[in-house]
Amino acid sequence: MCGRFALTTNEAELVEEFSITGVSSSRDPLPANWNIKPTEEIYIIRHGESESNSRELTHVSWGLIAPWSKSESDAVKSQSQAINARSESIHEKPTFKRAFSRSRCLIPATGYYEWATELGRYKTKQPVFISRDDSRNLAFAGIYDRWISPQGVVRESAAIITREAVEPLATVHHRMPLFLPQSTWSDWLSPDITDVHDVRSLMNVEKPADHLRFWPVRDLVNSIRNNGPELIDKIELGEPETLF
Q1: Residue 105 designated active-site
Q2: Which of 106, 132, 159, 185 falls 20 to 30 Å from 144 in CA-CA distance?
Q3: Structural domain includes residue 78
Q4: Could you report the per-residue pLDDT of 14-64, keeping only the tens digit for each?
Q5: What is the CA 122 to chain-centroid distance, rounded?
Q6: Could you tell me the CA-to-CA distances from 157 to 38, 56, 127 in Å, in that order?
């Protein structure tokens, strides 16, 4: 799964990297964040409404709001349970299946954190930071949806799609985000592809852990109060870990 991630790239850099043609003018740019937590605002890239191949950059709340939520408190509660959607069952789950067929997105990330659970070189619950081995951002496969509160407030939210981990990440945790290569981005974002079989085929990535690297980090990420580049500093195993 993915429960914390980082994005330190600014809007202009995202526009260039993901060939974005439009930026939502109704929202202020998000600051660099090394410790993004569920229900926070995150950037997503989705199909734009102006042209057939356009891409829009906007931000939404992390954690998909269940479509049947009756109140704001229901919506927030449902978000905490839907930050990730399993690729194996996303097309069947009531919370996710509508968004999966019609409103998919990319979620950019500098990297993400995982806590070791598998037998390997890391102790259990050792935080690890995973990123690309080049200067590019990760592109998580995601879904988004729109919910309208009883008071008429429109809230957009998104979830990250996860899959079974493969080597070398399988030595850290048994799940990993679904990373999409650039060659699939246009089809993934396309509102014209709605058949469940066709959409699921887009998740069959040949080398799902290609270009990834990871290293152990301190326990700083465990506290939402901590935020800064020191969170992703590599540590040597056996080094005393402290929040100070």
Answers
A1: no
A2: 132
A3: yes
A4: 999 999 988 887 778 999 999 999 999 999 999 987 666 789 999 999 999
A5: 24
A6: 11, 15, 26
Give the integer Cα–Cα distance in Å for 117 and 123: 8
Reported as a single tens digit per residue, the pLDDT across 183-229 is 999 999 999 999 999 999 999 999 999 999 999 999 999 999 999 99
Which residues 6+ apart lie within 8 Å of 113 measured at CB? Answer: 3, 4, 5, 6, 127, 128, 129, 130, 217, 221
Asked whether residue 86 is assigned to any structural domain, the reply reads yes
DSSP codes joined into one string, 122-139: S-TT-EEEEEESSSPPEE
- What CATH number did the domain enclosing 195 receive? 3.90.1680.10
Which residues constitute the domain of residue 14? Answer: 4-232
Q: Which is catalytic among the residues 56, 105, 114, 156?
A: 114
Domains contained in the chain, number: 1
pTM for the whole thing?
0.93
Judge whether 14 lies within some domain: yes
Q: Do the domain assignments include residue 175?
A: yes
